């Protein structure tokens, strides 16, 4: 393994792939700035929706597909704590009784990282060269925070962005109510949770909310727009990479 | 207790629309979360203590038969009696039989979730015995004929105004001019009412936080001292507890007590921790003449050796529900049975059947906070996922969920097809959504767009653009 220039497979995540490719390109840019060679093997989904719905056969099928697609990279990096957590924590669980796939799942799990923690913890990135004018607040997505310990790393990199002022969000560690299929299976409960989250975000006075997971961000952005709150939502990778694209759910024309 | 867990979705919808409930639940953060965090910050060895507590319970569960027999022998040696109840009906009948043998007309009760589980109050009332709840929260909800909404704070769903109104309608002697707006006045009023009941009761019924195998003791913690009066004043004391409350030694109980108070209320120790061993001995100044322990199984031993065994480590501190964002949104009653919150979402399907409580393990975002704060490190999300797995295997999930999942999985397992289909769909959604950037309504996405806008995709997918760049 070359430490100087590791070969990184980007697990782009289905939401970024489908809804917000600019996050994927921001991740590529950041990884390249951190000295990585980035490749994107053909991929679909990590299988988390099936896994969390109790559909273990499909979860295993998708996990095997991802394990096979990402074999041979020095690292696998995802711009999402949720998908990286699925691979790191739950793939080994899925195959614990499978002598063929268990070692392959473990091998992938230990090389897989969430993007921002990878940049800081593994690549030693201390700051970025980016500029963002204004106050932002940051929501800690649950899986990244509690499964992977992503907490200080995003704050550290945000502190290096010129012009950016971080205003801590009260209740930043409380779930936004997305929860994958939860938000459509229990829309009323989810609405209360994201409604509280949107109100807390607006109360910070920051014009932008950042997070490391697009699922949470689409949920939060959708509620902010519905409630007419003066806040924009962006993925943290876009700010760190200096991506110039309309915020989530904002018109592009 | 009658379950409404099957109607969870309706219960939850009503609960989120209840502004009064939202106000009552709003106090939870300051009341529980902050206090717990402060108490734990003051105890650097808290993590080590968690590990120790977990090991104690794991050991006990691995040798449960041995410790149960040892407990029974120790209770008998101290002059008490152990009664074994396989299910709720047996437990109710044992308690009723003991009350009848004592000629009881009224019984005082210290807070017991197991008594709720077996529906004890209703059974006693039907048989002409009046149960009197002596924990303030339980007393309030007994006046209101409501079940508890939280395992350590049964009246958490109520505001001070609600309590005052209940007191005024039940305590008819009250002078309307008397001020009852604040907690101390409410406590004083309840105390005054309860004093006479304590003295008149024939039997006292308590739960138990821990049962100690080496000594045959029951340990009960409260902050009001009501359990002590319940256990020592009447002639007969009955402690009812589920069998996983067992620990080998007093030393073990002491370890778990340190975890319990901090996790529950942020106290270093509960105000009253009472160890009861046998009836009054010759020379004791007070205590009951008879001491009985009713040990309830009610489905618990069936969990031993399964993927749910670890849930039997629970010490009922309530930290999981105190930190659960779903509980905070809907309160305890919506869960529909005795144990709300994450612990209930795992335990209720085990005790009343997953077909009667199928929504509970699904109504979680898997945010992981419950497991993070659980003093016994019970992997609650993982267990909820096990329930979902069983529901999926049995085809219990709603058809729309199954079909939606199957359709999505069909594409996701075929990367080429997925790329083309998803690419076309996103191009279309992106094109029509470009002007506004989002959708206020979308076919098939009603559950999302009922409450939030749906952000439009940017257009071509990442993988399409990446492939184009590589070619270019």
Short description:
The complex is a heterodimer of chains A (253) and B (472). Chain A is of the alpha/beta class and 253 residues long. Helices cover 49% and strands 14% of the residues of chain A.
What does this structure look like?
The complex is a heterodimer of chains A (about 250) and B (about 475). Chain A has about 250 residues and is an alpha/beta fold. Chain A folds into 2 domains: about 120 residues, Rossmann fold (3-Layer(aba) Sandwich), CATH 3.40.50; about 120 residues, Rossmann fold (3-Layer(aba) Sandwich), CATH 3.40.50.11810. Chain A is built from 13 helices and 8 strands. In chain A, α12 links the parallel β7 and β8. Chain B is an alpha/beta fold. Chain B has 22 helices and 12 strands. In chain B, β5 and β6 form a beta hairpin. The radius of gyration of chain B is 26 Å and the shape is globular. Classes of the chains: A alpha/beta (about 250), B alpha/beta (about 475). At the A-B interface, α1, α2, α3, α4 and α8 of A face α1, α15, α17, α18 and α19 of B.
């Amino acid at each position: 393994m070359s430490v100087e220039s590791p070969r990184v497979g980007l697990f782009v995540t289905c939401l970024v792939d489908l809804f917000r490719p600019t996050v994927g390109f921001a991740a590529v840019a950041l990884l390249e700035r951190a000295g990585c060679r980035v490749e994107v093997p053909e991929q679909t989904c990590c299988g988390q929706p099936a896994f969390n719905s109790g559909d273990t056969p499909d979860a295993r099928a998708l996990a095997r597909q991802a394990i096979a697609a990402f074999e041979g990279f020095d690292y696998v990096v995802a711009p999402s704590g949720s998908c990286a957590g699925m691979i790191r924590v739950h793939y080994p669980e899925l195959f614990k009784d499978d002598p063929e796939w268990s070692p392959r799942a473990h091998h992938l799990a230990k090389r897989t990282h969430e993007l921002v923690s990878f940049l800081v913890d593994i690549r030693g990135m201390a700051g970025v060269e980016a500029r963002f004018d204004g106050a932002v607040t940051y929501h800690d997505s649950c899986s990244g925070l509690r499964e992977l310990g992503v907490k200080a790393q995003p704050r550290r990199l945000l502190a290096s962005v010129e012009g950016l002022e971080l205003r801590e969000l009260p209740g930043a560690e409380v779930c936004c109510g997305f929860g994958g299929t939860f938000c459509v299976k229990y829309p009323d409960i989810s609405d209360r949770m994201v409604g509280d989250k949107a109100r807390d975000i607006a109360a910070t006075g920051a014009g932008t909310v950042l997070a490391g997971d697009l699922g949470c961000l689409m949920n939060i952005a959708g509620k902010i727009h519905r409630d007419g709150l003066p806040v924009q939502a962006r993925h943290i990778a876009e700010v760190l990479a200096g991506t110039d694209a309309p915020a989530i759910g904002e018109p592009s024309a | 207790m009658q379950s409404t867990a099957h109607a969870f979705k309706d219960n939850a919808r009503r609960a989120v629309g209840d502004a009064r409930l939202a106000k009552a639940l709003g106090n939870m953060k300051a009341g529980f979360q902050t206090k717990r965090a402060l108490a734990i910050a003051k105890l650097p060895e808290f993590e080590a203590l968690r590990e120790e507590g977990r090991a104690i319970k794991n050991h006990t569960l691995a040798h449960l038969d041995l410790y149960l027999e040892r407990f029974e022998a120790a209770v008998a040696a101290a002059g008490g009696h152990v009664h074994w109840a396989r299910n709720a009906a047996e437990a109710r009948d044992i308690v009723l039989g003991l009350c009848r043998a004592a000629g009881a007309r009224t019984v005082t009760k210290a807070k017991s979730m197991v008594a709720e589980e077996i529906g004890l109050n209703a059974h006693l009332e039907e048989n002409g015995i009046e149960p009197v709840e002596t924990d303030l929260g339980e007393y309030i909800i007994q006046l209101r004929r409501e079940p508890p909404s939280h395992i350590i704070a049964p009246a958490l769903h109520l505001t001070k105004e609600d309590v005052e109104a209940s007191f005024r309608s039940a305590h008819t002697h009250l002078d309307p001019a008397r001020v009852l707006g604040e907690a101390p006045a409410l406590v004083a009023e309840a105390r005054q009412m309860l004093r006479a009941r304590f003295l008149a009761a024939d039997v006292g019924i308590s739960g138990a936080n821990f049962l100690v195998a080496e000594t045959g003791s029951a340990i009960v913690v409260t902050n009001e001292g009501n359990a002590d009066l319940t256990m020592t004043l009447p002639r007969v004391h009955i402690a009812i507890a589920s069998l996983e409350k067992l620990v080998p030694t007093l030393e073990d109980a002491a370890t778990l007590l340190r975890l319990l108070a901090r996790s529950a209320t942020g106290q270093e120790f509960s105000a009253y921790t009472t160890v009861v061993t046998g009836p009054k001995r010759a020379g004791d100044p007070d205590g009951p003449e008879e001491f009985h322990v009713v040990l309830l199984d009610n489905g618990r031993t069936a969990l031993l050796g399964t993927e749910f065994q670890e849930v039997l480590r629970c010490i009922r501190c309530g930290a999981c529900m105190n930190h659960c964002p779903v509980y905070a949104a809907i309160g305890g009653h919506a869960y529909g049975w005795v144990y709300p919150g994450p612990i209930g979402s795992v335990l209720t399907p085990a005790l009343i059947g997953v077909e009667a409580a199928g929504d509970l393990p699904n109504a979680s975002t898997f945010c992981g906070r419950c497991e993070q704060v659980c003093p016994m490190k019970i992997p609650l999300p993982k267990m909820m996922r096990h329930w979902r797995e069983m529901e999926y295997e049995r085809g219990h999930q709603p058809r729309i969920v199954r079909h939606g999942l199957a359709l999505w999985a069909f594409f996701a397992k075929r990367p080429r097809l997925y790329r083309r289909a998803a690419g076309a769909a996103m191009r279309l959604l992106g094109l029509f959504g470009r002007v506004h950037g989002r959708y206020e309504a979308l076919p098939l996405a009603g559950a999302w767009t009922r409450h939030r806008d749906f952000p439009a995709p940017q257009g071509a997918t990442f993988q399409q653009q990446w492939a184009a760049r590589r070619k270019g």
